[in-house]
Amino acid sequence: MALKAVFFDLDGTLLDTLEDIARSANYALQTHGLSPHPVEAYKLFVGEGMRALMQKLASPDLTDALLKTLKEHYATQWKATSMPYAGIEHLLETLTCKGVKVGILSNKADVFVGECVTHFFPNLTFCGIAGEKEGIPRKPHPAGLFALLEGLHVSPEEVCFVGDTKTDMETAVRAGVEPLGVSWGFREKEELVAHGAKHVFDDAGALEAYLLSRL
Ligand SMILES: O=C(O)COP(=O)(O)O
């Protein structure tokens, strides 16, 4: 069926946020007497939201304190080095111009998703944007995607979900939409294929060409 809507993951798919997240997480760890990790190591840690990130890096009794410090630091540092990957603005603009609905579903805290989108994509209109928020289970649970799809009058066969981790691919599979992977983000192609990616793209131009071929 013809493509009507495309939903994107944010961190590692639309935006290269790795360094800012890593720096804030390392700041939190060091503030609470723990050792930092190399920025690259965060490619495996990021993807399930900030609480899960801190749970992966320290004992459970420290999670709340670490999370508070992480959020406070990230609130002032989220755009220090982060930026859209090459070709992303063009891709989003093209889809929007062609009448395809474009949305974002992230496990990043909802407040930061809003700030990032306003800052990095100020001229684009999205059909829905959501980050991790209370009351809605985060990806790979499909509830967040279903909530965004509500009222759009599209069926799952008319929707793609694009992401860079197994969490994103599982979300798409569970929601019954087409799972599309990107290899420029935080994980390897193999992980995406193993978790259901129908295609994995190496640059935004290739993804754009595929999506346009689906119209
Ligand atoms: O910040 C995270 O943990 C993940 O965010 P994402 O879902 O946009 O990749």
Automatic annotation (TrEMBL):
Keywords: Hydrolase. One of its GO terms (molecular function) is hydrolase activity. The keyword Kinase does not apply. It is an enzyme of class 3 (hydrolase). InterPro entries: HAD-like_hydrolase_sf (IPR050155), HAD-like_sf (IPR036412), HAD-SF_hydro_IA (IPR006439), HAD_2 (IPR041492), HAD_sf (IPR023214), PGP-like_dom2 (IPR023198). PANTHER family: PHOSPHOGLYCOLATE PHOSPHATASE. This is phosphoglycolate phosphatase. It holds the Pfam family HAD_2. Coiled coil: none annotated. It catalyses: 2-phosphoglycolate + H2O = glycolate + phosphate. The keyword Nucleotide-binding does not apply. Pathway: Organic acid metabolism; glycolate biosynthesis; glycolate from 2-phosphoglycolate: step 1/1. It comes from Sulfurospirillum tamanense. Belongs to the HAD-like hydrolase superfamily. CbbY/CbbZ/Gph/YieH family. Its EC number is 3.1.3.18.
